[in-house]
Amino acid sequence: MNLVKKFPIDTLVEIASQVVSLDDTNRGKEPPIHIGTKKVQEVKQGWFAKDADGRHSKINSVNTSTGTVKKITLSSGNFFYIDSNSTIDVGEEFSEYAGLITSSVTSVDDAGTMDLYEIILEGDGGLLINNVTIA
């Protein structure tokens, strides 16, 4: 599996709040980052993405482009779209809902062309997309 972290507009990303020290006198200058699920087009540089293990990866940039995508369907019935340059095969496993379910890929289908958002991360590089762990 080799995943390119480009996702179409209907993708949901799990965002974590940045830990701010109470001693940080500049904390009032930045808007609060509300934790939870955000649409990928709402995600901003400087926010933190969350992975299934609760680790945070800072979002260094979000780039937009247009490209072909694949629809990845999982044995749980869940699915997500990802850039067609990603390599995912039937039978590969994904963790869903922060590790509560382990499911396997049942189909990989071409899904046409869509506007894509590429998430560039630092840290461990993990994130939750539509409740599926992407590493």
Describe the structure.
By secondary structure, the chain is mainly beta. It has a single domain, classed as Beta Complex (Endonuclease - Pi-scei, Chain A, domain 1). The chain has no helices and ten strands. It has strands spanning 6-8, 12-16, 36-39, 48-50, 56-74, 79-83, 93-96, 101-121, 127-129, 132-134. The strands form two sheets. Strands 1, 2, 3, 4, 5, 6, 7 and 8 form an eight-stranded antiparallel beta sheet that branches. A hairpin with a 2-residue loop joins strand 9 and strand 10 (132-134). It is globular, with a radius of gyration of 15 Å. It starts with 5 loop residues before the first strand and ends with a strand. The relative contact order is 0.31. The mean pLDDT is 85.
Q: How do the strands and helices of this protein lay out in sequence?
A:
Blueprint: E1 6-8, E2 12-16, E3 36-39, E4 48-50, E5 56-74, E6 79-83, E7 93-96, E8 101-121, E9 127-129, E10 132-134
Antiparallel strand pairs: 1-8, 2-3, 2-4, 4-5, 5-6, 5-8, 7-8, 9-10
